[in-house]
Amino acid sequence: MSTRRFDNNGSPEDESPKLRRRRESGTRRLDTDNDQVEDTGPRRPEAIEQRAVVPRGASGSAARNSAHLPRTLTQIIHEANDKVVRGDLVDYVPIPTGFDPLDGYIGGGLRKTELILLGG
Predict the structure, then answer these.
(1) Which residues neighbour 31 within 8 Å (Cβ) at sequence distance 6 or greater?
(2) Using CA atoms, how far apart are residues 17 and 34, in angstroms rounded to an integer?
(3) Whose CA is closest to 27, among 48, 51, 46?
(4) Which residue of 6, 101, 115, 119 sits 20 to 30 Å from the alpha carbon of 63, by its own alpha carbon?
């Protein structure tokens, strides 16, 4: 929404700010001091810095990269079942907090990969 001013003759004066392109970056900004729109044209491709994007923590190992690939629910359930069958219950055994009422409320303690928010 813009405000329009009227001169003494009753005709509106157009004082809306104009977009003005910055010379150094090619971006536009509002220009309230000048009624002209200055355009330097599109940015040149040679002015755009191009670099290879390397994800954080990338070490190049395939095992590390595959750890963050999406998995289906079936794959997750089979993996959990295989761990239980092997007796690898480290991820599922709760770690007691030492505060018995809290441990009883959250099922025996804290578990790996779980987040518990306490308020009081």
Answers:
(1) 17, 18, 19, 20, 37, 38
(2) 8
(3) 48
(4) 115
